[in-house]
């Protein structure tokens, strides 16, 4: 196969490892640590990609300034698959990756790279059609570190090289163990110790032996590399541990199914860790995965983490809701992201902050922000009369844009108007949906307060007329895309998103339904992370001006407390704005303390029991508020 060359930017290397013995030494891989093990860095990982998929991802990731941190190529079950972990470039050094090389091709690439002043950080071996192939990752040796590598070593040869290189002040930063017709062989990369940290290496461990070593080392060391190989004697494991001098958190999981690997990937990402090493391997029980994670921000150290964990766990245990997702922001920074329970019970998928669900009536708060954005842009005014904007609207609609947004347009709600035929119909505009029921009489006299979802459909028609665009595009262009909110957008049940399954009445699944007719009243979807980011950006003044926020969060009358899409109030003298949402299979809540920069977002995938996103959100908000000086 033709040798493929890639030059890009550099970041750290993490190992897939096996080792010789429990002999302590003095070295650290990935030197220098500030470059290759930063406290925080952008990262991504991919797994089970075909060769073509990996090539496409490689081009995109390299162009965006990422470097391969860990590479895993396997042909488990005869299928060629690539797993990779990437970190962002921090110092701009050149690097390259080559794969699918035969022995001679790899040797030539090795010599050429060395001549270019590059050092090998990873070499990977695998079989394609029964023929051994090699891949490698090289980085520019900016620091001038001494290094070397070997392939095809027997166990005895590995032991000899181990002692030789340790005495020379080098340590292994990558190792691969593989089976051949002549027995086990080892490949290994060594680099000069630059920071004098103790490290420990073990190989050929049974599962029980690995667990014992892990327990012995985890307090003072962090795990840097992992490898597992199935041989005739059973499963064997290897690992590299390095002194965790700066005390940053880490985690390691092994022998996971694909589903469980995904669960932990998202769990650790929520909790503030990045993946640094990845392995896929055969076992007697089937294909399994392993991963090593490293603390990547301050979320693991947030002082309120345990208190919030306990409150959410109590909600989960006491209400039997399938899943809960929570996001807490303070001063526009995510302090807490976490899922509890299940996003999908049948498929054993844990809930996390990236699972998308319906916002139900929290959509009305989004409608408030959208309307005020259009007011700022001079497209509409709260005092504009609906019939001036939409002349086709029947004459009894004497409300204004502001009346509709504040639930003072006197439009009937579900109990007043039959909406049973509206679901799953593809309404291209809010105007088309409003035409379905606007002949119905008003239920009061505007601007009397009357809570209704249907009034927001008429609001959508007003905004469409003012902007000359349909309401879904208005949400996407003026909020979703304008502020990088990703999943916070008009609900699209056909979109390929990580959607939480909705449940009701004893964990019975709820069928997905298209809610085109009520986009602004209950048809927005999001994950809890983007919902929290929406609130945080709003509180930080990044979406609306202070004047617009003051208007939006001021109720037209003090009796209802309901302003323009939001409920308003105070807590211990601190202003609070919030909105709750409830629909079959969905509960959502967004709570903001504008003067304190606190935002709490909660979502659940069932509303049939006693669970309450509103009470849970209030309790979490109180925990954060009471912690402030």
From TrEMBL:
Residues 308-615 form the Beta-lactamase-related domain. Gene3D superfamilies: DD-peptidase/beta-lactamase superfamily (3.40.710.10). This is Beta-lactamase-related domain-containing protein. Residues 1-27 form the signal peptide. SUPFAM superfamilies: beta-lactamase/transpeptidase-like. The keyword Protein biosynthesis does not apply. Keywords: Signal. It comes from the Bacteria. The keyword Signal applies. Transmembrane segments: none annotated. PANTHER family: BETA-LACTAMASE-RELATED DOMAIN-CONTAINING PROTEIN, D-ALANYL-D-ALANINE-CARBOXYPEPTIDASE/ENDOPEPTIDASE AMPH. InterPro entries: AmpC-like, Beta-lactam-related, Beta-lactam/transpept-like, PGH-like_rpt.
């Amino acid at each position: 196969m033709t040798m493929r060359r890639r030059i890009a930017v550099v970041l750290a290397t993490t190992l897939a490892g096996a080792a010789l013995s429990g002999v302590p030494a003095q070295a650290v891989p990935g030197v220098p640590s500030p470059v290759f093990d930063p406290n925080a860095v952008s990262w991504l990982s991919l797994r089970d990609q075909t060769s073509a998929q990996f090539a496409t991802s490689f081009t995109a990731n390299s162009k965006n300034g990422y470097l391969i941190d860990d590479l895993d190529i396997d042909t488990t079950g005869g299928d060629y698959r690539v797993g990779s972990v990437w970190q962002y470039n921090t110092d701009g050094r050149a690097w390259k990756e080559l794969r699918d090389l035969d022995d001679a091709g790899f040797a030539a690439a090795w010599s050429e790279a060395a001549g270019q002043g590059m050092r090998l950080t990873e070499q990977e071996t695998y079989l394609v059609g029964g023929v051994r192939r090699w891949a490698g990752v090289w980085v520019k040796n900016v620091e001038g570190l001494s290094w070397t590598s070997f392939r095809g070593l027997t166990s005895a040869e590995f032991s000899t090289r181990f002692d030789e290189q340790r005495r020379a002040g080098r340590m292994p930063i990558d190792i691969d163990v593989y089976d051949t017709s002549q027995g086990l062989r080892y490949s290994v990369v060594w680099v000069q110790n630059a920071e004098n940290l103790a490290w420990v290496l073990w190989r050929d461990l049974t599962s029980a032996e690995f667990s014992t070593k892990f327990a012995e080392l985890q307090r003072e060391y962090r795990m840097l590399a992992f490898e597992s190989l199935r041989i005739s004697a059973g499963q064997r494991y290897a690992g590299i541990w390095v002194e965790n001098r700066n005390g940053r958190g880490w985690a390691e999981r092994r022998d996971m199914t694909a589903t469980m690997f995904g669960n932990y990937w998202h769990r650790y990402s929520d909790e503030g860790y990045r993946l640094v090493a990845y392995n896929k391997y055969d076992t007697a029980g089937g294909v399994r995965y392993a991963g090593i994670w490293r603390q990547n921000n301050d979320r693991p150290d947030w002082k309120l983490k345990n208190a919030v964990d306990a409150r959410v766990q109590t909600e989960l245990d006491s209400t039997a809701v399938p899943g809960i997702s929570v996001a807490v922001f303070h001063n526009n920074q995510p302090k807490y992201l976490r899922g509890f329970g299940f996003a999908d019970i049948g498929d054993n998928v844990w809930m996390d902050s990236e699972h998308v669900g319906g916002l139900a009536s929290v959509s009305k708060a989004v409608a408030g922000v959208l309307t005020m954005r259009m007011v700022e842009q001079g497209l509409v005014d709260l005092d504009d009369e609906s019939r001036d904007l939409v002349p086709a609207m029947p004459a009894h609609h004497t409300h204004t844009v502001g009346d509709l947004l504040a639930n003072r347009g006197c439009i009937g709600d579900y109990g007043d108007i039959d909406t049973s035929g509206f679901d799953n119909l593809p309404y291209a505009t809010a105007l088309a949906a409003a035409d379905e029921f606007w002949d119905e009489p008003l239920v009061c006299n505007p601007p009397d307060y009357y809570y209704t979802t249907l009034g927001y459909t008429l609001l959508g028609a007003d905004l469409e007329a003012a902007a000359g665009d349909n309401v879904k595009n208005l949400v996407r262009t003026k909020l979703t895309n304008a502020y990088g909110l990703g999943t916070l957008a008009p609900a699209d049940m056909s979109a390929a998103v990580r959607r939480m399954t909705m449940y009701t009445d004893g964990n019975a699944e709820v069928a997905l339904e298209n809610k085109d007719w009520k986009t602004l009243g209950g048809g927005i979807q999001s994950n809890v992370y983007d919902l929290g980011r929406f609130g945080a950006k709003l509180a930080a003044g990044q979406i609306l001006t202070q004047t617009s926020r003051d208007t939006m969060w001021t109720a037209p009358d003090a009796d209802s407390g309901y302003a323009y899409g939001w409920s308003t109030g105070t807590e211990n003298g601190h202003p609070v704005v919030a909105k709750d949402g409830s629909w079959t299979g969905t509960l959502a809540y967004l709570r903001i303390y504008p003067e304190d920069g606190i935002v709490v977002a909660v979502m659940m995938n069932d509303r049939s029991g006693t669970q309450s996103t509103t009470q849970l959100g209030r309790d979490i908000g109180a925990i954060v508020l009471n912690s402030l000086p």
